[in-house]
Specification:
Helix content is 39%, strand content 14%. The protein is α/β, with parallel strands linked by helices. Strand 4, helix 5 and strand 5 form a beta-alpha-beta unit. It is globular and about 65 Å long.
Length: 429
């Protein structure tokens, strides 16, 4: 089976999709990945072949401010941030991305196209080439659906007639908001010889498969009727070393807290410092992972805290009592897969939505990103003492253990290609 995949921007969306890539390669399939230059090394470690993104976004890398073309973190309001993400992250790159993807498919006709749901250009190119396409969703279910607030609203479900009216109004607003990209999408479709669409979302709705990389128990849409092409495949994680050498002496039995605030740059240093100040002096061991976006040298690190650029979270989480996080979807999934409750301090993007789902599941609490160190400290202390958070997180771990998202997705793609009976198909391994 020949698989053409996208991997965009090199941030929190990358790890679950790379896990899918590795699973496909290990099952004997020929996988080529259109990726930004910043992601080349990680893609190559999966065994896949890299095709670098061309054009104006070739150097896009969300881990550094100077290479982040979206810069949603610089907006003064949440709506302004959403506009930047929509315009600079989805609409503006559409023509170049579609043309490159279409050119790759002409030279190398794949059996299936697997794309980051944010990059609709891959879906357009696949449709024009008559090749089935599947979207990988690395966040909550992203399309408006009756019975749940939409993605990027940050809202929790609301029961009763008032809740129905609220969701209907908010969903209608987000449909109008996304419609700003429809003229560009239809121009690209026309260039590919395709008929225009009446809604931006229809391009995603029409693909052969939409694979949501989490357990349905975590997502509001997971309990609602969904289109037949939508499947919750379970969480997918990159390979990691299962060995972690604790920097604390063995006799230190204080609870371990993992603190992490995004691999992408979000101007988060002030928030991180307030969290570090909050945990100072607590009877706890605190492991802070900075990632590539945060300069540890600019922070004041408390005596009970160890700061590292990178430690595989899933190597640490089995020992952790609590995670303090921006509520990135991958961090949330990793924590709950190990039964660890969370203190969520969302910063932007889909993080308020992720935090809302954690709180609704009973496996964590949420704080405003402007909360003081004193407020953060009180919430952390309460979370460490609250057995109900741990109990609910362990229930989520049981739900997460039912499916391996990478394996389930690979198997679903094999079934999809077999059903399509593509002439370019190669024998199954």
């Amino acid at each position: 089976m020949r698989v053409l995949q996208t991997l965009l921007a090199f941030s929190g969306n990358a790890p679950p999709q790379l896990a899918v890539t590795r699973s496909l390669v290990e099952r004997g399939h020929d996988v080529r990945v259109v990726a930004h230059r910043a992601g080349r090394e990680r893609v190559e470690r999966t065994g896949a072949t890299v095709i670098e993104v061309e054009g104006s976004t070739a150097e896009l890398d969300l881990t550094r401010a100077e290479t982040d073309l979206v810069r949603d973190w610089a907006a003064k309001t949440s709506l302004g941030a959403a506009v930047r993400l929509r315009d600079r992250g989805m609409i503006d790159p559409l023509p170049e991305g579609t043309r490159q993807f279409a050119a790759v498919l002409r030279d190398w006709p794949a059996d299936v196209v697997v794309f980051d749901w944010l990059f609709l250009g891959a879906a357009v190119a696949a449709e024009a080439a008559g090749i089935p396409a599947a979207a990988l969703v690395h966040c909550p279910y992203p399309l408006p659906i009756s019975g749940a607030p939409p993605l990027f609203s940050g809202m929790k479900p609301m029961a009763g007639a008032v809740g129905v009216l609220r969701d209907r109004a908010v969903n209608a607003f987000f449909t109008r908001f996304s419609a700003a990209g429809l003229p560009q999408l239809n121009r690209v479709r026309a260039e590919c010889g395709l008929k225009p669409l009446s809604a931006w979302e229809d391009q995603l709705r029409s693909v052969a498969g939409i694979y949501v990389l989490t357990a349905p128990e975590l997502d509001f849409a997971g309990a609602l009727p969904l289109p037949a092409n939508v499947q919750y495949v379970g969480p997918a994680f990159e390979h990691y070393s299962d060995e972690w050498s604790s920097p604390w002496p063995p006799e230190n039995s204080d609870p371990l807290i993992l603190a992490s605030f995004s691999t992408s740059y979000m101007n988060q240093n002030a928030l991180v410092q307030r969290v570090l100040d909050a945990v100072e002096g607590l009877p706890a061991r605190v492991l802070f992972t900075a990632g590539p976006a945060i300069d540890i040298a600019q922070l004041r690190i408390p005596a009970n805290t160890r700061a590292e650029v990178f430690v595989p979270h899933r190597a640490v989480l089995p020992e952790a009592a609590l995670v303090i996080t921006h509520a990135g979807w991958q961090t949330v999934n990793a924590a709950l897969s190990c039964g660890v409750p969370l203190v969520c301090i969302p910063d932007g993007r889909d993080q308020p939505d992720n935090a809302a789902r954690v709180v609704s599941s009973g496996s964590g609490v949420r704080l405003n990103k402007k909360a003081s160190s004193g407020k953060i400290r009180r919430v952390v202390e309460n979370a460490l003492r609250d057995p109900s958070l741990k109990g609910q997180a362990q229930l989520m771990a049981t739900a997460f253990a039912r499916k391996d998202g990478a394996l389930t997705t690979a198997e679903a793609l094999e079934v999809l290609v077999k059903a399509n009976d593509s002439p370019a198909s190669s024998p199954q391994p």
